[in-house]
Structure formats: structure tokens, C-alpha cells
Amino acid sequence: MPVLPPISVMETAFRQRDASFDGLFFAAVTTTGIFCRPSCPARKPLPGHTVFYPTAAEAIFAGYRPCQRCNPLASSADPEWALDLVSRVEAAPERRIRDADLMAEGLDPATVRRRFQARYGLSFQAYQRARRLAAAFEAIKAGGSLDDAVFDHGFESHSGFREAFARLFGDPPGRASKVHGGDFIRLAWIDGPLGPLVAGAVDGGICLLEFTDRRLLESQAAMLRTRLGLPAAPSAHPHLERLEEELGEYFAGKRSAFGVPVYEPGTPFQERVWAALREIPYGQTCSYGELARVLGDPAAVRAVAQANGRNRIAILVPCHRVISADGGLGGYGGGVWRKRRLLEIEGASLP
Q1: What fold is seen in the domain 7-66?
Q2: DSSP string, 301-315
Q3: 185 with 231: CB under 8 angstroms?
Q4: Is the pTM of the predicted complex or chain greater than 0.85?
Q5: How far apart are CA 186 and CA 31, in angstroms?
Q6: Which residues contact 241 (CB under 8 A, 6 or more apart)?
Q7: 271-304 pLDDT, tens per residue?
């Protein structure tokens, strides 16, 4: 769970409309029942009428509705300096950008750290390190030498590289590049109108797509390592680029089916359930009981529900289209409010 800044810091940031805090917390106004970004241009409430939440979902669960002026449910646009830093890291992961470099460019390292922690669950320095390690992994996988991987990717010693590599990937470089075909899960963060998503891809397809609510990279990587037996790190992949494009079209109401491949191994029964989910037509819903009957086992309602809950590829494997037998929305891992909005985007009939 993300840690909120001190209340005094949040109050000052909210009253000064400090956009550098957007995404770090949300301010809810008790007298109006709405919640906002810190940078919201609306008139500020009197002192004592504001409460703070680490995520938009928690503000909604507490009964607040999103502000129409600052639209806190839309993705928080990264400032130009943050986009520039990401672009520079992606273009040359081996080049280390230190705090002294940030200060020389007029950037406050603490502000940079807060922004990256909120966006990726990692400090800027940790993000750079993970990106360098992912690039080194790709180089070793392609047949490069360990020496080249160490010194060509910004590490100063073999011991420091091995320690950082094993901490992120769970194995030393020599073993990690040989097991499981030398593959690893590439992680990326994708903005959307319902909040940011974290996506994972292997060569076989998309293996993860979840609303993040700022989960830490370490927890995502640990879950994927347990589930797929593969390490994970932020990196680029053609599947991720295609996914981002197709999701944009979906949220804009211009796409009803996805072409990016999906890779979601499970038990034979789970895979049957997930395959059946993908057959539910766009804009339509069904109950767990109906899904069980489609699978030829009407008594397996509970097992179907459990398999549905274990799906880790949101939207592409549309578990949001499964509702309760009484017509209610039922539960959803990304929050029922998101489930309702996804069905609204698809034009489904809702209670």
C-alpha cells in the first residue's frame, strides 16, 4: 500500500495546486462529496474540510465522486521533465542519470523520486537500475559475454552486477539466461481513463494486465515469478506496443476485439474458463452459472468463479462481463466501479 506524504505537506500542495503531487494522493472535500487531484483549479475548501486518500479507488469506496474539473479518474499526465527522463532511459538504459545530474538540470531529486514512486512503484534510481538489468539480460540472452553485459550497461563491478541481477531476476546471470528458454517478463505501465495499468509480456503474448493502483513492482514481479516461473523487469516488447495501441482504441469505443496474443497458462480447467471468457461477446454479460453450463458442467459454479477470480489479464480476457445470477454486478479485482465503467464503454445493459 502506498504511503501518503505528511498531512501538512498534502494540505500545502493541494492549496498551492502543486501538480508535482498529482498521482501521489487525492484530496476529498467533505462538504461537497467530491475528490480532486492536488492540482485541481477549483476553489479550495476551508481548512478542516479535506481528507486525503492514496488512490482514486479508495476515495470512491469512501463515498466521494470524481471532480468534473480536474477529472481525477483520467490518467495523470506526466510533466514534460518526467517524460523526458523516461525517454532518455529507454533510449540508452546503460547511461546512469545521477541525482547530481538532475540538480544540474534544475530538477529536485526528491520530486523526481516521488513522481516515479507514484507512477511505477520505484524510485527513479531503482527504475534506471531495473531497466539496465533488463537490457543486460537481453544482451546475455542474445549470446553476449558477461563482461560486456556488466560494463556496457553501466555497472562498475561484477559483484555489484551479480547481486543486483539476482535480486531482481531471482537467479544469477548465467542460470537466468538459460532456464525457461532465456525468456523473462517485460513490464510496462499504460495510462487509461480508468487509471494506470501494469502490463507484462513474454514472446508468447501478454501475460499480465491489471489496474495497478500503484502496486510495487516487486510485488508484481514476485507474483509473476511464482505463477509463470519467469523473472520480470521493466522493458520494451512489440506485444506491449500493440497492446497500448489497441487499449487506446478500446477505451475510445473504436475496438471490440483484440488482436494482440495472450499467454495465460493455468490448470486445464482454468484455461477452459479463460477461453470461455474470451467467447463472451462484446457488450454482453453472463452469469457464473451460465458459464458453467457452457463448459458442460452446470454444478461447477464455484470452481468457475474461482478460476474467473484468478484471471490476471483484465479486459483482454473479459472477466468483467461475468455478473451475478440475480443481475447484480458482483465483484471485480479492479473495483466494481471499474467493472461498471467497462461495461458502459461496451454498451452493455446494466441494472
Answers
A1: DNA Methylphosphotriester Repair Domain (3.40.10)
A2: HHHHHHHHHT--BTT
A3: yes
A4: no
A5: 44
A6: none
A7: 999 999 999 999 999 999 999 999 998 888 999 9
